[in-house]
Amino acid sequence: MNFEFSEEQNMLREQAQGFLQDNCPTSRVRSILDGEESFDKDLWQKVVEMGWTATVIPEEYDGLGLSYLELSVIAEELGKAIAPIPFSSSVYLATEILLAAGSAEQKSDWLPKLAAGSAIGCLAVAEGSGTTSGSGLTSEIKGGKLTGIKIPVADGDIADFAMVLAQSDQGPTVCLVSLNQSGVGCERVKTLDPSRSHACLSFTEATAEVVGESGQGLVLLESIYNRAAVLFAWEQVGGADTALDMAKEYALGRFAFGRPIATYQAIKHKLAHAYVKNTLARSNCYFGAWALATDAKELPIAAATARVAAIQAYYYASKENIQTHGGMGFTWEFDCQFPYRRSKLLAINIGSEAVWQEKLIQAIEKDRAA
Amino acid sequence: MNFEFSEEQNMLREQAQGFLQDNCPTSRVRSILDGEESFDKDLWQKVVEMGWTATVIPEEYDGLGLSYLELSVIAEELGKAIAPIPFSSSVYLATEILLAAGSAEQKSDWLPKLAAGSAIGCLAVAEGSGTTSGSGLTSEIKGGKLTGIKIPVADGDIADFAMVLAQSDQGPTVCLVSLNQSGVGCERVKTLDPSRSHACLSFTEATAEVVGESGQGLVLLESIYNRAAVLFAWEQVGGADTALDMAKEYALGRFAFGRPIATYQAIKHKLAHAYVKNTLARSNCYFGAWALATDAKELPIAAATARVAAIQAYYYASKENIQTHGGMGFTWEFDCQFPYRRSKLLAINIGSEAVWQEKLIQAIEKDRAA
Amino acid sequence: MDFKDTQQEAEFRIEAAKWLGENIPTDAELEGLDHIQRAKLWQKRKYDAGWACIRWPKEHGGRGANAIEQVIFDQEQGKYKTPDSIFGIGQGMCAPTMMAWANEDQNKQYMPALASGEHVWCQLFSEPAGGSDLAALRMRAVKDGDDWVVNGQKIWTSGAHYSDYGVLVLRTDPDMPKHQGLTYFFLDMKSPGIEIKPIRQISGGANFNEVYFTDVRIPDAQRLGAVGQGWQVALTTLMNERASIGGGGGGVNFDSVFELASNTNVDDQPAIKDAGVRRKLADWYVQEAGLKFTGYRSMTALSRGEIPGPENSIGKLVGAPKQQDMASFALDLLDASGIIWDEDLSARAGLFQATYMASPGFRIAGGTDEIMANIIAERVLGMPQDIRVDKGIPFSEIPTSGS
Amino acid sequence: MDFKDTQQEAEFRIEAAKWLGENIPTDAELEGLDHIQRAKLWQKRKYDAGWACIRWPKEHGGRGANAIEQVIFDQEQGKYKTPDSIFGIGQGMCAPTMMAWANEDQNKQYMPALASGEHVWCQLFSEPAGGSDLAALRMRAVKDGDDWVVNGQKIWTSGAHYSDYGVLVLRTDPDMPKHQGLTYFFLDMKSPGIEIKPIRQISGGANFNEVYFTDVRIPDAQRLGAVGQGWQVALTTLMNERASIGGGGGGVNFDSVFELASNTNVDDQPAIKDAGVRRKLADWYVQEAGLKFTGYRSMTALSRGEIPGPENSIGKLVGAPKQQDMASFALDLLDASGIIWDEDLSARAGLFQATYMASPGFRIAGGTDEIMANIIAERVLGMPQDIRVDKGIPFSEIPTSGS
Fold it and tell me: Is residue C53 very low, low, confident or very high in pLDDT (cuts 50, 70, 90)?
């Protein structure tokens, strides 16, 4: 039994922690949330220099060829830092789609750029409210031309290209669209978490190429979501721990009725429950990371388990962090808002809690029927 | 706005409380739970003498002709006392079916006896596990003869007659069967709450008569359940308050680490939450009682609302009462077990929480569509 | 048991409804006015006709009405869209304190202008180190001739920037035990030395202020109660607070989430078809109904001249976390698009996003969830207080984060 | 990250599996024996072959194995149905205390017979007035020559009626502060003056006893640690308790409720088709998986020779209420028939009913939910203790329900 990260991976974690403490203090998150910039370009550039965008890209495409365990370590640390950069869109989603289904040419066109940070990718699926299934899809790809409107697209105004789900003659299809072309409109949208940018992308006869098999877009996305869910879950667990730490530190220093509020059972038990949720979610993330790194058949169950646990843990920790702070936690000046906002973004970005609870039970049913 | 019981009704409550304190201390519940008797005959006889079984039966059938508000008061007090008698089966279910759908002859045959306590009725619907819908029903009535097995039947071994749901040529039908006849087998079954008796009733060509319209059994039961749900909810709220009172009294007297456990937030907040749940449930019962007493069109919503709230309140109060007591609460010697057992019996006796949540939303949908 | 008014109540309701029907400000009348002007216009109109602060004595500008009449008037007024009030704290909290503790001349001087909306009042109790522990306030008042000189900072003051007067509690003797070294005053908010800074909230709003005091002078004649009696006076104010802060009002409720679930598709069918969604909605409906009917029971008590108990803390303790969970759930229903918070693009103009961001505040303002649970345990269930280490020792010796 | 044994672990596993495969008691061997005889037969067989108490030193009857080897042996043994152990408290809690505090002669005398199953030990700490506040125990020991004379009552002692020895903590000086007036002993459970009464539980079982002492004499030589050092010795015992009490074991879990939901119809279709049921099951699966993988992380720590932290309290804090809710939910699925509790008539021979009635005990035994949350807050998160009013004053002056 060796259910732990390796020494090298733990060194990577230490290095990442140090790097992010220096380069992504909460003041950076605040400046993106409160300012006009759509992401922290300086941090992004440094993240690229650290090679993080290249982590799992094979060496033949100028990547580092490391495993998903290394990427999990990075994800958790980025989550802890609530980093205002398009990492999840570009790395967990766009890069993964290329790795899973890109043609040789698509791979050699884009993977080296993704590794080098000279291109940023994103994923465009939603077309307004509710879950997007095949039959409701209105975007269309026909003869290499894409027409339709996608909203919201996380990091859509930052990305150089988008992976877009659109209807083809064969059915729902993922296609790759360069966003630097006429025929692509892009408008930023206001969101609950302005520390991560979102856009409305509109396509009018934009040049696009199919990724993977035409008509197999939903199958492709299903498998990509399972992979991304593990990495999102690591970000979420990292964020949940940040919220818990903030709450604990505040409770230790804040006095009421002549003693630290950390001595009151209402606060102690609240934080104990947050710790429990975070720990169980983290343990589930371990299993998710193992399944992702080994391409195990358990991945669908492992991914859904990690994601559901992480969504619940982050929501609880981030809301009770504000509550522990009392009135001060509700002010703009304090940092409690960052994990609270981010927890909701990450909770709904690739399917909400209920969606993944359903996926989990379906995966268990499938597993037991086999 | 007069959303309160009248002075006369409050006097009835005081009288009922005094009566039950004298005649139904928890030692009586214990003696039924722990002994061979299937109900407290002595208490039942006195309850009959108080006229409680006659409360809503019209005067023409020797009843008192009082309203459902009076019956609500009695139900709450019986619930508080966790009374080990077949009151709900005979009064909220069997009597109500006769009142709602009995023929003139059936009414004059049975209502005076029910009022005078010389007959006890029960309702037999379940045929094993899961909810019983029309299509799964195996009991059959044909030419006035009933054949089938009903299990569990609350108070089935105590009752003189049963209202039985059985399949007729026209569909599910309620029929009235005297239990004092050959062709009826009765065996007591072991349950989670032995302070209320349950039986397996088997019918072999037993003489039975249809109540209401043949084939309309499910419709009849639906309306009876809505009425009974309000009265069950009052019993449940009464029981939940008993559990809360027990917990509070114990917490005030029990010391840990040099002070009453009632000074600890973990205990205070636990009981505050029980109080909140009980209060909201009680307020919902008020509305239920009003709807029942006035035959309001709001009854389906009011009944489901009261029942869902009461189920949740009783479960929470009864389990956290044991928890507040610690180890002593888990001993046979203490009384904490009574509300804990009874809460589950009342929660599933006429359809569980999920069933009533669904009924509630259906009723709301129907109301809004109208 | 019925929902009908008594005959006297019914008559009052007719009278109130009639006046309201004829006097609600029209859009044309409100056109071009800001929210303060609108509030003042409507308040003045009520005052002139004897419908302002109707529970107050007539000599203070009220109508001498009883509690249930107040409820009835509010219900009838609630049927219309009227300008948002900016007088809640002044009329609801400051006025009862003044009437209980100020002298007759002062009340005659100040109350009518408060009833008519000419003057707005605010409340200055909280301090940065205070929070749930209100009596831990440190801001000093030092006697100087016939005045008190005040330096320091108050926080969480709603409406400070448009208020004419304020009430405040100050520490006049830090060597007395915590609750005994306080004194209560009212003051002119335009006094020299007062600086007001709005506090930006995570919800985007700025309903509260920090108020800084530099050598502000308050005449001793504006002291309410004796020196050192401030906590007792403050309790008068606070007892009236609980009644005036609700569960967060408006916001997300069963109706809005039910409608959203009916109109939002999940896997090609409306979310409301999903049994899991139905079960959650049922629970929330049941809670809301419970709160509503608990309110009916309180109103019945009022109607009988009884005083509703602190059971009303239930409304906030249940309502605030419920709003947070419902808003969070609604965003989940919207899936990825739940993140969009835009008046034009979001369902119900962003109600669900706004409530998600505002609800953490509902759980804190006017007493946190935890304080509410304490109150219910102690005042309703009669359970003892937690161990207090801050009682009976000089305030200056009570441990703080600095010590 | 993998789930594989190290080479050394793999070799150990093969050896253990081989021995177990050849030595598990057959049905024929167990026929006609009661549960105590069965447990003793199996324990003796393991002992004779060097597979009993494998972490103990060889001279005490063990094998000198390490923690991960213990886990591996338990895993392999867990693949078989073996007689229920009755030695958990003796071997798991009493023995570590003896080894830490008794002298070498005593350990040589008592430990082998405990390892071999010849002797059963029990633990006598709790008293009626104690509960979560273990150190509040009042039962007195008074020195009389070379003996201590003991009178009073202990409670919650598992297996007292078939135990040969017991460990107990007694108050030897009520005028010392609470934790300083205690002394720790072991004693012969057949000593004159001991009376044992089983405690009937609401679940129907009687796993615990009350033990009454009348002038029972314990030789001073059986004292562990110094007079007044009893609390410190008791901590050795208690530190080993948390490891040995799980989340209630067996009982209701995801698998059993999933199966029930698959086989129970609600409105003519299996309950598992209902989205509300699926969502609840998903949450429980996620919790169970989290606990399982947290266990894997602890095992990894063990395997590396590290000591797993008090994070393990999580298992009980999460597991016990989960079992209660799952059992309650399962009964709901069964609808009216859920009330039937009968080996022959109920699903899974009454597992769901039995767990509904037993789970309140899981939430209490070995530390209540509330104590577990305190432990996590204090020992894991490093938060301070609640205010203690019972420290530093004579035990006899600490407020009690009598005072």
Answer: very high
Tell me, yes or no, whether B133 and B111 share the same domain.
no
ipTM: 0.96
Residues A227 and A361 in one domain: yes
Torsions phi, psi for D268 (to 5 deg): 70, 10
Entry pTM: 0.96
**Binary contact (C285, B305; C-beta < 8 A):** yes
Q: Are residues A242 and A335 in the same domain?
A: yes
With H, G, I as helix, E, B as strand and everything else as coil, classify residue C134: helix
Which burial class, exposed, middle or buried, applies to D179 when counting CB atoms under 10 A from its CB (0-12, 13-18, 19+)? Answer: middle
Asked if residue A271 and residue A179 are part of one domain, the reply reads no
Mind telling me how many Å the CA of B343 is from chain A's nearest CA?
27
Strand C223-224 versus strand C121-124 pairing type:
unpaired
Q: What is the pLDDT of residue C266?
A: 84
Contact B205, B162 (CB under 8 A): no
Tokens 């279709």 label which residue? D269
> From the CA atom positions of chain B, what is the Rg in Å?
20
Smallest CA–CA distance from A154 into chain C, residue? C336
Phi, psi of C364 (to 5 degrees): -115, -50
User: d(Cα A225, Cα B139) in Å, to the nearest integer?
Assistant: 50
Identify whether the C-beta of residue B296 lies closer than 8 Å to the C-beta of residue C1. no
What was the pLDDT predicted at A131?
A: 67
Predicted local confidence at residue C246, as pLDDT: 41
The answer to whether the CB of A118 falls within 8 A of the CB of A110 is no
Domain boundary among A162, A185, A215: A215
Given B56, B89, B116, the domain boundary residue is: B116
Among residues of chain C, what percentage have pLDDT more than 70? 96
Q: What mean pLDDT do residues D310-319 have? A: 84
Cβ <8 Å between B128 and D337 = yes
CATH assignment at residue A163: 2.40.110.10
The Cα A201–Cα A184 span in angstroms is 7
- For D43-193, where are the E strands, in sequence order? 121-124, 140-144, 147-155, 165-171, 182-188
Phi, psi of C216 (to 5 degrees): -75, 135
Q: Tell me if chain B has a CB within 8 Å of the CB of D369.
A: yes
pLDDT at residue C247, as a whole number: 38
Whether the Cβ atoms of residue D228 and residue D301 lie closer than 8 Å to each other: no
* In a shared domain, residues A209 and A252: no
Chain C residue with minimum CA distance to A251:
C401
Domain containing A30 equals 7-116
SS3 content of chain A, % helix, strand, coil (to 5): 60, 15, 25
Q: Do residues C125 and C169 make contact, with C-beta atoms less than 8 angstroms apart? A: yes
Question: Which H/E stretch holds residue B32?
Answer: helix B26-34
Domain count, chain B: 3
For residues A120-141, average pLDDT: 86
SS3 state of residue A259: strand
What CATH number is given to the structural domain containing B64? Answer: 1.10.540.10
Q: Are strands B198-211 and B171-178 parallel, antiparallel or unpaired?
A: antiparallel
Chain A's closest residue to D384, CA to CA, is A263
To test the contact with chain B by mutation, choose from A265, A269, A273, A323 the residue with the greatest count of B C-beta atoms within 10 A, namely: A265
